[in-house]
Structure formats: C-alpha cells, structure tokens
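Dear colleagues,

As part of the handover before I leave the project, I'm documenting each prediction I ran so the next person doesn't have to rerun anything. This entry is a single chain, and its sequence is reproduced below.
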Amino acid sequence: MLERLFKLKENNTDVKTEILAGITTFMTMAYIIIVNPEILSVTGMDRGAVLVATVLSAGLASILMGLYANYPFALASGMGLNAYFAYTVAPKVGWPGALAVVMTSGILFFVLTVTNVREAIVNAIPQSLKMAVTTGIGLFIALLGFQNAGIIAYDPGANAFVLGKLSEPSTLLALFGLVFTSVLVVRKVKGALLWGILGTTAVGMLTRIVPLPTGLSSFVAAPPSLAPTAGKFVQGFKDMFAVAGFGFIPMVFSFGFVDLFDSIGTFVGVASKANMLDENGNLPRADKALMADAVGTMAGAALGTSTVTTFVESAAGVAEGGRTGLTAVVTGLLFIASLFLAPLAFMIPGAATAPILIIVGVFMMEPVTKINFGDYLEAIPAFLTIAMMPFSFSIADGIVWGILAYTGLRLLSGRHKEVSGMMYILSALFIVWLIWG
C-alpha cells in the first residue's frame, strides 16, 4: 500500500528511511509547538487553544502534502507571519479579525492555485535564482541555528549580531551537539541528525542542563480545549470590515506576499537539494504542493492560528534521505500525537535542535557551485538573493531583491527578451510592494 501511495522504489527510498526522515523533520520543527502559542497569546488568545490549533493544523496540512502532492515538505504556522499577526494586524482588527485576514489570504491562494497562477510564478524563476534560493535558505536556517544555540546573539547597543556567551550551559550543550552531530555526519552514520538531537538531549539530562522527566505526567497529558479559538474567524470578518474597512486589503496582501514567496523559496530550495526539479528547473506537481499550502492556511485560520506555510526545516528530513510524501505524513502524525505527548516534546531543548539547523545549512551550500559567478549578469542577482535572506532575516526579501536585479539588469543591458512576462509582472508588483511597504 505504501509503495502504491508514495512510489518509494521510483524515488530510490524505503519505508525505514522515510520514517527516519519524518521524525527528524518533526524534531527540528517541534519548537513551533511552544513558540507559536507564546507569540499569539500576546493578542489575548488562549495559549492552550493556540497550541492545539498549531498542532492540528501542522499535522493535517503535512499529511495532506504527503498524500496529495507526495512531497517530503512539512507545514506549520510560519515564523515571522505569526509575529506580523500578533504585533501588527491583531492590534488593529482584534485577533478574530486577524484570523479573518488569514482566512482571506488562504482563499485567495486557493483561487490562484486552481488557476495555476502560483505554479506559473514558481516556474518563471530562472535556474540561477533557484540555485541561489537554495543557498540563501541554507545560510538563513544556519543563522537561526547559531542564534537558537546562543553562539551568536543580537546586541541592541551595537545594532548587530555578535558572538554570544559561550560559557552559558545551554550554549555549551549546543556546541557539544554541533561537534557530536558533525562527527556523525562525517562518518556517514545513518540517521546522523536524529541521533545528534537525541544524543545532545541525553547529555543535557546527564549534566542537568535539561530537566529529567518525573513520572507519567512528564510524558502524557490531556490536550487543552480548542473552543476559545476554533471558528472565531467568522466573527472576525465583521470586525475586519467594521474596524479596517477596505484597509484590510493591504493586510491580506502582506500575509499573502510573505507566505507565497516563503513557500516558493522553500519548495525550490528543498526540492533542488533533493534533485526533485525537472530538466527545466521546475517542480513537478507544484500545483498540488501549493494547494496543500493553501488548504493548510485556511485550516489554520479556522482552528485558530496564524498562516500555515511550508517549513524550511523540511530540509532536515530531506538531508536524512526523505524523498516522498511518506516523510511528510510521518511528520504530520507526530504533530497530532504531540497533542497528548506535549510534555515529552517539550523535553527536547533548543540546544539540541539548533546544531541540526547549522548542519543542514552546510548541506544546502552545494548548489552555489552551479551558479556562474564569472557572468555578472547571473552573479549579481544570485548574490543578492543569497545575501539578503540572512541579512534581512526573510526568505521573501531575498527573492524580491534577486528577481528585481535579474529583471532590471537584463532590461538595462539590452537583453530584455531573455526575461519572461511573469518576471516583468513580478518585478512590477515588487516595486509597488517596496514603495507601499
């Protein structure tokens, strides 16, 4: 049955590898179970209900991605988008109104996906930029890893990232995890990333940096009620129109813009690393992957959480050999199981998952060798794409700068015929976005 559903042999994989990859992806994404309720609770939303909404939407969307699109991409409430929800939109229209804005953006994405507009956008991105996106995402998630580990920290006084306090116990644990996992990778140990997470957690417990479990309650607990947030977007539509009027349109555009290009960036970046792109550099079944993303956003809004999007941490599972939707299904099932095993998931410290993000960043550097840096017409847009992702802390911003540079340089160099109509449309929209934003 699994072979028929996921075409394992055709994708040169097996059940064991896919399960291991799914577990690894879940481990690197599990932080969202804790972080998302913390962020959204500042709006007045019930923390427990948001946790359940976060878990259910991630589980359902990931399973849909696996069964419908057969890709190893996992989804959950997006970082950055949840902050925009909590600190920009909710203060204006209330948190039910913010859920209505998210639902509207999901419906819009659904329509764009059905009409193949989203897929056309993905396929319009040139090959050199796709390789740059992969590399940029690698640097971006490595930056997240270094920051989560405490190896680097933001210094408000210097307005810059600086070296963190390496003597902090959690940072020392993360450094151990980085060395331990690196050795496993170099020695080509199967499941190196997962063993790195588990080994680092075990060392953390032995050194009392990570609390030891105490009794059954440390492993199993009944999930909180979803009632405080489920379906509240319906009332939110009234709030959205009453408070914002047509001013809700820029909010929808903002959610949609970031989600669209974060998703596209993740699809392209992770897929190229796994050699899933076709000979033209396009993603087969992109329409199905994008549909799962759109449905995930609508489901998340209905349950009571911010925009659900494809996670760059899916690269961790791909690095472990995940090549089919079985990886995403395993990740989704683990999210749903975490409803009852939330205390167990909380036992995995950030110091154990942060090194994995750094190592995956290393894995994703390889495509940079396929970019012709001797041709500045290719090199400049690619470099801007790569550099702006970590520097601006946004995958979407990196894509914007890369596409604008690609289109602008060719237009000013008299080679405008090399640019597709979709790239001109995207560039025009980006210019409006930059001025508007």
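The mean pLDDT is 88. The chain has one domain: 2-436.

All the best with the project,
I.
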